[in-house]
């Protein structure tokens, strides 16, 4: 301690990298190499601090599970898949039907209906991060899912009542299609819309509680110390998204069929019944589940790091008052449900929260001094942000496709031989392409890409996200090209004013190209992102990590709404009779220009992602050899 500089103990250690990295990283001066701990050593000496991998799974009563073979694994995961399948079926069933319900039943303008649904989708996803904090802090993932699936079911029941009981909808007398298009039908009363919005947003609140927890809870069922853990995790997230896709396919086909044959009440009622059955199945699997203890309020821990770093902002890393970087002794972290995390050199200003000075004394105040692990949690949350942020653009494209492509399909021939496919079934094709890609993923993509990249899983998580973003650019660019052709065809053949009349000589199945491409983009981007966030997030904040993906999706919905409003105000002139790009009459609007704007934004977003991915440093574990024996030790992660 005589020197004012924190030395690296590189002279007395030899390192063997476990995943990525190089041994010369230990020869650099790093704050995280200042002390070592073990169960027997409680003083700071030159070295690194010991890490145990993962945390001990517990049962529903919070007691450690002694025999892991009787719990968790794929059997427990399949109960969770069932719950997710029903939740996604309800989510997509509402998203594809609610616009039409508001337009045809509640007599709301199409643009207002689309914006209301976009806001529902956005709120249900963007609020996921708050529920993620709640799950990681107090409730745990299991109880969060249990509570919010019940809320979800209550919301679906309320929507079913609205569609079934006539008092909740406006009068439909003397309301033909022409009156509906001209806006002459009796609109819903304010209290009727208030009831519908309340039920809709209760449903969205329930969805917000499930989304950040269900994928993390499923991944918790696998043993982190198993040699097959990485392989199981990779396959889990693919099967997880496959269950999402199956739910979407059922929503776009079976639920649409029920609505056309039996009405809105039966369609929404079937969603509520499916959600109730899935809840029962989820609870049946309770004895099989492995749980992680909630680690206390992440918000409090984050706030403590920020406050402690601010208080010591003027303190120097070479101060003579420096004792070292603070971490509790032993193998376990001070944070319940979390292993210790390696120190890194990123965001050095936050390291000051862990600077232990002589003035701190023995009565340690968590608002003045935090552990290295606690500081690293905050660093990780910050470092993760750019990656999901770059997927917001994909969500924007998905949101626009969900509404605009249905309008396109109304003007096209949807016959397949003698079978006429309902327009509202068109979004099923991205789901079918996802189903096909996931089915062939391990037999086709992984072997081929492994030969190119040498990666055991074919491509890294960030590479898969990048592939998805690149394919999404192709999808929206094709959408722009085809929409320009479709509009010109309509104008040249006298369909300019007949925007709800299908053109018999132009098939709707040209839309399949953009649908299939966006489906491929989803597979690579979203699955890769979910796996990336789960593995890179701190142990006690994995629900928050998963919530990042949901928040990105929600922000995409809001961005789509904002973008649509900007384009409407900037491209049209009501007094001059100039239609906007997003005119209700698609044949006088210019959807193709909007798609080109999305293409340009997607290209710029992809460039930002490439930069962020190159700068990102994966969390790395290493084994340090000392005195001929291997001692598990965390050292600074280097670029993987």
From TrEMBL:
Topology term for the membrane: Multi-pass membrane protein
Ordered alphabetically, the record's keywords are: Membrane, Transmembrane, Transmembrane helix
Q: Which GO terms describe its cellular component?
A: membrane
UniProt-listed SUPFAM superfamilies:
MFS general substrate transporter (SSF103473)
Task: Enumerate the subcellular locations listed in this protein's record, separating them with semicolons.
Answer: Membrane
For the keyword S-adenosyl-L-methionine, the answer is no
Span list, region Disordered: 1-25
Q: Which GO terms describe its molecular function?
A: transmembrane transporter activity
CDD domains cross-referenced by the UniProt entry: MFS_NPF (cd17351)
| Ranges annotated as spanning the membrane | 89-107, 119-139, 151-173, 193-214, 235-258, 264-284, 384-406, 426-444, 465-482, 508-534, 546-567, 594-613
Family recorded in the similarity comment = Belongs to the major facilitator superfamily. Proton-dependent oligopeptide transporter (POT/PTR) (TC 2.A.17) family.
Protein known as: Major facilitator superfamily (MFS) profile domain-containing protein
Q: Which organism is it from?
A: Papaver somniferum (Opium poppy)
